[in-house]
């Protein structure tokens, strides 16, 4: 097997990285990360210039999920102290949507806890999406398994993109969830892609998975070919099964390797540093923006984060420009 530096010198977009090469890159010695960051940075500049797309996330339905995902504060098995509600008030949802347009952010992401929905619930959601689309917002919805009929209802309402993460490899998946499978997620994504949605699909790092699992997850994501790849670095939330059992041992260097690998494997996609940015990249934002072109502002589903204004200021201070996908008409 070639060494990490030989793999980098032989890298070509026309010859996709193999599983073995991906694992070797994840094992690059920490003190020799420069070449890997440089290669990822060249691709980042080639396809994304100096743009950073900023997403705002609204948790439309929170908690009480029937699934047992060990990392998730919204699982019925979690004892995390989070707010639980069936549907966020209109005022809050539409105020967030206006903030996306007023601050010229790229996208409004809306998340709903739960794995399946009634047609009535989807009709209600479609109505809200239709209202928000009138202001020209680019909208992505993070939601469980939809029937094809439900997916088409959201498509007809104007929803642009759907987020459905693989989270980890097929092999490791039973360690983080026993109530559904990774294959079900992949099937769901295939259906969503077939009916014309833009796809956002990523994962979570720091749940006890191996480097091989990270490589396998990225290979599956490459196969799906999403527009956007959010990589979350686990924020252990007190009361979740995973935080109690297996606190993550992530270093910033390892997080950098994962993001560089994602960039090398999916050079044209938006590579997003999602949850964990403020924790694992504090003081290393210059390196981070040299690799990724997408982040969240104002926090995550059940965890806080950097405010919109501070995020925009950070982007500008490092010489990058916020990308505007929402038109804010
Ligand atoms: S990740 Fe999604 S499906 Fe899993 S427990 Fe949380 S809300 Fe439910």
Outline the secondary-structure elements.
Elements lengths: L3 H6 L9 H8 L7 H15 L2 E11 L28 H13 L4 E6 L6 H15 L5 E4 L5 H9 L4 E3 L9 H4 L5 H13 L3 E3 L2 E3 L5 H14 L3 E6 L7 H5 L6 H14 L4 E4 L3 H4 L4 H5 L4 E4 L10 H10 L3 E3 L6
Parallel strand pairs: 1-2, 1-9, 1-10, 2-3, 3-4, 4-5, 6-7, 7-8, 8-9
Helix pairs in contact: 2-9, 3-11, 5-6
The protein binds iron/sulfur cluster.
For the sheet with most strands, the description reads: 10 strands, parallel
Roughly what fraction of the amino acids lie in strands?
A: 5-15%
Number of domains: 1
So how many helices?
Answer: 14
CATH topology: TIM Barrel
Task: Give the radius of gyration.
Answer: 19 Å
Query: What is the rounded distance between the termini?
Result: 54 Å
CATH C-level: Alpha Beta
**Bound chemical compounds:** iron/sulfur cluster
Number of strands: 10
Percent helix, as a range, is 40-55%
H/E order of the elements? HHHEHEHEHEHHEEHEHHEHHEHE
Plain-language structure description:
- This protein is α/β, with parallel strands linked by helices and 329 residues long.
- It has one domain: TIM Barrel (Alpha-Beta Barrel).
- 41% of the residues lie in helices and 14% in strands.
- The chain contains 14 helices and 10 strands.
- The chain has helices spanning 4-9, 19-26, 34-48, 90-102, 119-133, 148-156, 173-176, 182-194, 211-224, 241-245, 252-265, 277-280, 285-289, 308-317, and strands spanning 51-61, 107-112, 139-142, 161-163, 198-200, 203-205, 228-233, 270-273, 294-297, 321-323.
- The radius of gyration is 19 Å and the shape is globular.
- The model has no long low-confidence stretch (mean pLDDT 92).
- It binds iron/sulfur cluster.
